[in-house]
Specification:
This protein has 182 residues and is an alpha/beta fold. It has one domain: P-loop containing nucleotide triphosphate hydrolases (Rossmann fold, 3-Layer(aba) Sandwich). It is built from 6 helices and 8 strands, in the order H-E-H-E-E-E-E-H-E-H-E-H-E-H. Strands 4-5-1-6 form a 4-stranded mixed β-sheet, with helices on both faces. It has a two-stranded antiparallel ribbon with strand order 2-3. Helix 1 crosses helix 6, helix 3 runs parallel beside helix 4 and helix 4 packs parallel to helix 5. The N and C termini lie far apart (32 Å).
Length: 182
């Protein structure tokens, strides 16, 4: 297992406090499961076949298979596939459609600009707060600007947070404190 992302740490922190949490891996290179102790390659695949058109939007054609990470934490992830971006978007939409079943939903959204353009709208629709993590570089700032623009368009409050290298635990604790106080 590689280093643990802030998304995984935040999901675990919220679940450890007794909140029912949904963690959704919307990254085309899905590793959130690995970081939560469940091999991503072993997860059930959720793709566009799990969705169907309905009145100008999408709805679930089948329930996504969630994996119990622990008593309060459920994961909607998936294995790497031949259609990584499409699968990431499908997982994001499914996460949106079931988010109201949970107290918190933590979405690990890939930082690539292609995903920011394609998926961020759907993923943000039910959000109460969006954390936009950036490492402070110019490229990261441009992607963060796009995500923040989508937040403003959907009237989703957001906070840009500096992702301090080597301090994922500290950043996750900072985010968890913000969530608990809002």
């Amino acid at each position: 297992m590689g280093k643990t992302t802030i998304s995984a740490l935040l999901a675990r922190d919220l679940a450890s406090r007794g909140a029912l949490v949904l963690a959704v891996d919307c990254d085309p290179n899905p590793t959130l499961g690995d970081q939560l102790g469940v091999p991503s390659s072993s997860l059930p695949r959720f793709d566009g076949d799990g969705l169907r058109p309905a009145s100008g939007t999408l709805e679930l054609a089948k329930e996504p298979e969630l994996v119990d990470v622990d008593r309060h934490l459920r994961l909607l992830g998936g294995p790497p596939s031949d259609t990584p971006l499409s699968d990431a978007v499908a997982r994001g939409i499914a996460g949106v459609l079931i988010a109201d079943r949970f107290e918190h939903s933590v979405t690990d959204l890939g930082a690539g600009p292609e995903l920011a353009r394609v998926a961020v709208g759907g993923v943000l629709n039910p959000a109460d707060l969006c954390f936009v993590l950036t490492d402070g570089t110019r490229v990261a700032a441009l992607t963060a600007d796009r995500v923040e623009q989508a937040c403003r368009a959907r009237e989703v409050p957001f906070r840009r947070v500096l992702n301090k290298r080597g301090d994922a635990d500290g950043v996750a604790e900072e985010l968890a404190e913000i969530v608990r106080s809002s």
